[in-house]
Amino acid sequence: MSIRPDQILHPRPEGLWCPEGRFFIDPSQPVDRAVVTHGHADHARAGHGAVLATAETLAIMAERYGPDFAGTTQALPYGERIRIGQAEVSLAPAGHVLGSAQATVRQDGLTITASGDYKRRRDPTCAPFEPVPSDVFITEATFGLPVFRHPPDGQEIERLLRSVAQFPERAHLVGAYALGKAQRIIRLLREAGYDETIYVHGALERLNRLYEHFGVRLGRLEAATGSKADFAGRIVIAPPSAVADRWSRRFPDPVVAFASGWMSVRARARQRGVELPLILSDHADWDELTNTLTELSPSEVWITHGRDDALRRWAELNGLKARALHLVGYEDEDDD
């Protein structure tokens, strides 16, 4: 008797459950055994009995939660396959942040890939997305509407640098998510030829060091401490919460920038008081989502979170069987 995909993986309140392997993928609460796709807090939580992930993701979790964040841990390199019960598990790059992975489960001739969060464009701080031929592809849909078409990264970095040149008396305070986005902006600035010292909020320092440990060169960074005059004409990168906090008052008439895919929505930029919105996302936009589904052409598409209605309709119009999983516990990361 042939096996159905939902017998291999199916949603439970804790997350995606694999009965044969007795593990969850990105569970939203502590479980006995977890496969974790990446280090963002809505996917990587502390308290599991055992965690399987890339070495980079395990290091990120240890940095964020402490060395005893799980009972036991196992690092699985990209492309290596292991057997857990009757299920075979492997990880492939997702292109989201450092160490991010798609989790592929193979059983009884069927292949299901849970992509976690992903993007398709080049990111100098992490391995690029690697398509995995699958019978079922589980995709996010954070930006799953046709209105979301992110501009080239270099264009947004050039807008930032033009503003720095135009307002040399002002600091440029860039709000960026502490894991992945901040380091990506720093690397993109370096690739654009910006060799000046970049100043960072203290909350970024440990993750910056971790990225450096894994070979991502960030150049000259200094803590954003000192007098107002020290920051005229400088770029300062900080978590979004700090940009909105009293901490930001230490800078001279700052140009408030914010790096997020949501900055294409003008109302969000106005609500945050953002003068320079930078449309830089670590998630796939509409074209990346639909192009990925076209490229993989799976028998079924499962959609985990985000704007699932539009993507499900697109899939069905293009001959792909699609369903929304309605998993709880995942956020449309407002800072992404």
UniProtKB/TrEMBL annotation:
Coiled coil segments of this chain: none
The organism's place on the tree of life at top rank: Bacteria
InterPro entries: MBL (IPR050698), RibonucZ/Hydroxyglut_hydro (IPR036866), Xnuc_lig_assoc (IPR026360)
Stated name of the protein: mRNA 3-end processing factor
Organism: Brevundimonas faecalis
